[in-house]
Write a structure and sequence with these properties.
By secondary structure, the chain is of the alpha+beta class. The chain is built from 11 helices and 13 strands. Strand 12 and strand 13 form a beta hairpin. The protein is globular.
Length: about 350
């Protein structure tokens, strides 16, 4: 009887063998003039300027290997960076990825991770232009995304004017619900998520594992006759990120919570005896987009109006100041929707 060999690890294959493996057969986008294989990548800047964003994901802090498979982790890493590019009114053209890996990581795991990178890049736009791989004690992913503005110039948080309409693209609160389900009912959530009949629970858990930003709605909004005057990505929490927009623009954001009511989230909240409204207002990592349209201008189809811009400062919900943490802050205790096994 022949011995069963163990699957190869990254230590067995080596850095350059691993790089060759995960890049084999990939097709670069038209903006990539030179991809992996040299000292640096070369990208074309179609409009003479780039929008650039970088994010890091650390195992046990931003994802858990017992909750997510490598494809989901790869998709999430690209999605959160692509969302930042779209939140500037731009479209991704390329990504550079740094990977820190333990030496005993199976090569098949890294291949599946790379498949996730490429799959989400295919949905968002752009391709993987290069990066670096190093040995580390745990899995660490750093993604830098490059984007071309979809309009004449990038759209920032600072363009909101009094009288403008605030609207969102996407469903806030679902990632926070998924995190709560995984945290408080771990095995049940995992088992039910694998069951196609699980419905709402499966959708919430999937939203946390692999968010699906509404890239197409930003593209459509930027191509419309009246694009948004201010734009941001809801990654830290709706109230937290609207607060950043309000501060940058020197205005107040008045939110009406009625359009944010979500029956699906209410079902998840009832199962856990949790507060669906808090998930919506303070949960992060859905990568919903929030935009502000000029006074008298209606948001395009697919965007949900949730409030208006007023004179003043900060964020008001249903006419009152919200009490409690507004969302995620990396170095405080107000962490509302990040994967963290120390919580």
């Amino acid at each position: 009887m022949s011995a069963i060999s163990n699957p190869p690890t990254v230590r067995d294959l080596g850095e350059f063998g691993l790089i060759d493996r995960i890049n084999a057969g990939r097709i670069q986008g038209s903006a990539i003039r030179l991809g992996p294989g040299d000292d640096a990548a070369v990208l074309a800047a179609a409009r003479g300027q780039y929008v650039v964003s970088t994010d890091m994901l650390i195992e046990g802090r931003h994802f858990r290997l017992d909750w997510s498979n490598p494809d989901e982790i790869g998709r999430k890493a690209i999605a959160q960076n692509a969302a930042d590019i779209y939140a500037m009114g731009a479209e991704p053209v390329g990504y550079v990825i740094g990977l820190g890996l333990p030496g005993d990581t199976p090569v098949d795991f890294v291949t599946a991770l790379a498949d996730g990178f490429w799959a989400e890049a295919g949905r968002a736009g752009g391709s993987i232009a290069g990066g670096d791989i190093v040995h580390s004690a745990q899995l660490v992913i750093s993604v830098t995304a490059f984007g071309d503005p979809l309009g004449e110039r990038p759209v920032t948080r600072s363009g909101a004017r009094v009288g403008g309409t605030v609207a969102i693209a996407g469903r806030p609160g679902w990632s926070a619900a998924g995190l709560a389900l995984l945290s408080q009912a771990h095995q049940a959530a995992v088992d039910r998520d694998r069951d196609p009949a699980a419905g709402t629970v499966a959708a919430a858990v999937a939203a946390h594992r692999s968010p699906q930003p509404a890239y197409d709605l930003v593209r459509a909004a930027m191509g419309a006759g009246a694009p948004p005057e201010a734009l941001t990505d809801i990654s830290d929490g709706l109230l937290a990120d609207l607060g950043h927009l309000a501060a940058a623009s020197g205005v107040a954001v008045a939110v009406d919570s009625a359009p944010l009511h979500d029956p699906g989230l209410r079902l998840c909240a009832e199962e856990l005896e949790a507060d669906a409204r808090q998930w919506v207002l303070t949960g992060g990592e859905d990568h919903v987009f929030a935009g502000v349209w000029a006074p008298g201008t209606a948001p395009p189809p697919g965007w949900t109006s949730i409030g208006r811009i007023e004179a003043g400062r900060g964020v008001i919900v249903d006419g009152m100041r919200y009490r409690g943490p507004a969302g995620w802050e990396a170095f405080s205790g107000s962490e509302s929707a990040k994967s963290d096994d120390s919580r």
